[in-house]
């Protein structure tokens, strides 16, 4: 059967108008595009060109960024605060460093510091690049540090150096009022604890800090304080001090003579060091005082007690009150373990009830002032751990608390003018409520 298109169009008149309408629409769209093109003939090319360059540039930057990340592995730092069981080997092993390489680092560092002797609570710092160690740092003193680093230019691939940390010494001023003890008052006032202990040593010939301290006593001192990288590390020398004890004023001025030898002097230039310390015990408490009659707790009767008892824990070190020769060392009746020392100028000191006499302290041995001669105990006739201490002068028992031995030395006449200048500056700084200014105390003044 043959179909006549004319018949089809006649039967469906809508199809007859469809194609001319579609053609007209396409002509209009083409005209509009041509109009825009002729108005701005470069618009499309500029925009396309700009996009293409931008895309190429962005892609290049991204590639550079990716390449950079891949070329520079992550750097890290690990600070290990060491406990008593940690070693350099164990720390580095945690970072997967081979044992052979750990030994190589240890050997390289040996001329400066032995890494097998790391201290508890110290910090070992390790730098890494990616998953490989790069450098090791260890501070082995207050102002010195070991630094080991990988170094491709070195024959063994490592470089090692000792680095001195940034430090300075400042002069600090501290003062306070004593309520119960010098140590407590000093620390409360902000003083370094070591400086407070040194202060008690300086005045040890004049003040017994167990029996002489009174509530309301005052103190002031200038002392050196080492700062490392801006942080206070340790106290050094005391430059000067003043203390009022039971209304009596005591002064200490540090001064170096023409030979460069330093010592402490009072404001008249007399040396504070004397032949006998005021007490043979440090940080102690007196349990009974010198008296003509004292009820003995074991013998149950009154008897003279020509000495002084210092109550202290068993094992507390006892010092020789002065330099001299040991004339007796051993067991002596009610004294238990007993030591007797003969000094110059007719003085003899005796120490009883030791738990143990220090090895080497025997009859005929020489001792210096401050040497440890034994340890507090409760041997012999004793109710508890304490030190019995007595002094004889030319064979006569005397009250140890009343002894005022003579100074060992004084400032030489040739140095007195310079001493006066040092003393004047010290007192000016000591009374200044602001921070003290450092000054020299040596022969260069």
Give a brief rundown of this model.
With 445 residues, the chain is of the alpha+beta class.
Report on the architecture of this protein.
- It is a single chain.
- The protein folds into three domains: 75-164, Nuclear Transport Factor 2, Chain: A; 166-273 and 407-445, Nuclear Transport Factor 2, Chain: A (Roll), CATH 3.10.450; 285-402, Glucose Permease (Domain IIA) (Distorted Sandwich), CATH 2.70.70.10.
- The chain has helices at residues 5-11, 13-39, 43-71, 88-94, 99-109, 182-188, 193-202, 416-430, and strands at 75-81, 123-129, 132-139, 144-150, 158-164, 167-177, 218-228, 231-245, 248-256, 262-265, 285-288, 291-295, 302-305, 308-311, 317-319, 324-331, 337-342, 347-354, 356-357, 366-367, 372-375, 386-393, 396-398.
- The strands form five sheets. Strands 11, 14, 16, 17, 18, 20, 22 and 23 form an eight-stranded antiparallel β-sheet that branches.
- Residues 1-6, 39-66 and 434-439 have low confidence and may be disordered.
- It has 445 residues and is an alpha+beta fold.
- The termini are far apart.
- The protein is built from eight helices and 23 strands.
- β4 (144-150) and β5 (158-164) form a beta hairpin.
């Amino acid at each position: 059967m043959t179909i006549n298109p004319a018949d089809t169009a006649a039967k469906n008149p809508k199809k007859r108008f469809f194609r001319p309408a579609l053609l007209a629409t396409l002509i209009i769209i083409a005209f509009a595009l041509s109009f825009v093109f002729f108005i701005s003939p470069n618009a499309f090319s500029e925009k396309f060109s700009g996009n293409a360059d931008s895309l190429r540039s962005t892609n290049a930057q991204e590639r550079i960024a990716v390449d950079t990340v891949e070329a520079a592995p992550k750097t890290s730092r690990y600070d290990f605060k060491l406990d008593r069981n940690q070693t350099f080997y164990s720390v580095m092993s945690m970072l997967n460093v081979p044992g052979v390489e750990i030994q190589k680092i240890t050997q390289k560092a040996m001329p400066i510091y032995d890494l097998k002797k790391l201290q508890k609570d110290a910090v070992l710092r390790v730098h890494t690049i990616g998953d490989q160690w790069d450098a090791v740092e260890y501070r082995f003193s207050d102002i010195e540090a070991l630094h080991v680093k990988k170094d491709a230019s070195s024959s063994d691939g490592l470089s090692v150096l000792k680095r001195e940390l940034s430090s300075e010494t400042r002069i600090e001023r501290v003062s306070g009022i004593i309520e119960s003890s010098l140590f407590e008052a000093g620390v409360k006032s902000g003083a370094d604890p070591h400086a407070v202990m040194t202060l008690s040593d300086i005045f040890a010939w004049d003040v017994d800090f167990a029996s002489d301290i009174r509530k309301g006593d005052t103190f002031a001192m200038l002392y050196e304080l080492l700062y490392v990288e801006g942080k206070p590390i340790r106290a050094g020398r005391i430059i000067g001090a003043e203390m009022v004890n039971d209304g009596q004023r005591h002064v200490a001025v540090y001064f170096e003579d023409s030979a460069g030898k330093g010592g402490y002097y009072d404001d008249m230039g007399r040396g504070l060091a004397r032949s006998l310390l005021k007490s043979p015990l440090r940080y102690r408490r007196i349990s009974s005082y010198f008296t003509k009659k004292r009820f003995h707790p074991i013998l149950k009767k009154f008897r003279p007690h020509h000495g002084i008892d210092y109550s202290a824990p068993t094992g507390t070190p006892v010092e020789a009150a002065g330099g001299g020769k040991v004339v007796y060392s051993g067991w002596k009746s009610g004294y238990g373990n007993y030591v007797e020392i003969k000094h110059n100028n007719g003085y003899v000191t005796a120490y009883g009830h030791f738990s143990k006499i220090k090895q080497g302290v025997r009859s005929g041995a020489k001792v210096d002032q401050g040497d440890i001669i034994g340890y507090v105990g409760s041997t012999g006739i004793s109710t508890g751990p304490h030190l019995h201490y007595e002094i004889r002068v030319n064979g006569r028992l005397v009250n140890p608390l009343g002894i005022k031995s003579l100074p060992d030395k004084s400032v030489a006449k040739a140095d007195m003018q310079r001493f006066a200048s040092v003393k004047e500056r010290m007192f000016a700084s000591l009374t200044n409520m602001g921070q003290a200014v450092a000054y020299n105390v040596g022969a260069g003044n």
